[in-house]
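Internal ticket - ligand job 123, zinc ion:
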Amino acid sequence: MQIPFRKIHEAPKPFCLKEDEVECSGTFRRSGKHRVTLEGELKGEIEFACDRCGALFRAPVEESFTLELVDRPVKVEESLDMIECLDGIVDFDGICKSEIGSMQSEYHLCPECEDEEDFEKEF
Ligand SMILES: [Zn+2]
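stdout (structure tokens):
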């Protein structure tokens, strides 16, 4: 799903899309001349790679996020949670994919390694 930046208005609009086993839904609205605020939620199952043994495993996720989208270049110091849409197009699929990607890049252990870690803690 792609929407031109200039067609986004101040009244919040819902969106909902699916990326593999993950549903990404929420609302987006214009929050400034060059700014759109997107509040979303990821819900479903994501495939993670275990940081200890490398095994791939799926785990349920439910996480909400807020992003600021801008249609002009931003300074580095204000770029946290900001996405530049310099071609004037808001690419919801791309946003959803990058949110999933950033969750996958966090630290994860597969269920077996997690058990082991609990085991180690007890002794
Ligand atoms: Zn593991």
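Auto-summary: The helical segments are 92-104, 111-122. The pocket of zinc ion is lined by residues 50, 52-53, 55, 109-110, 112-113 (CB under 6 Å).
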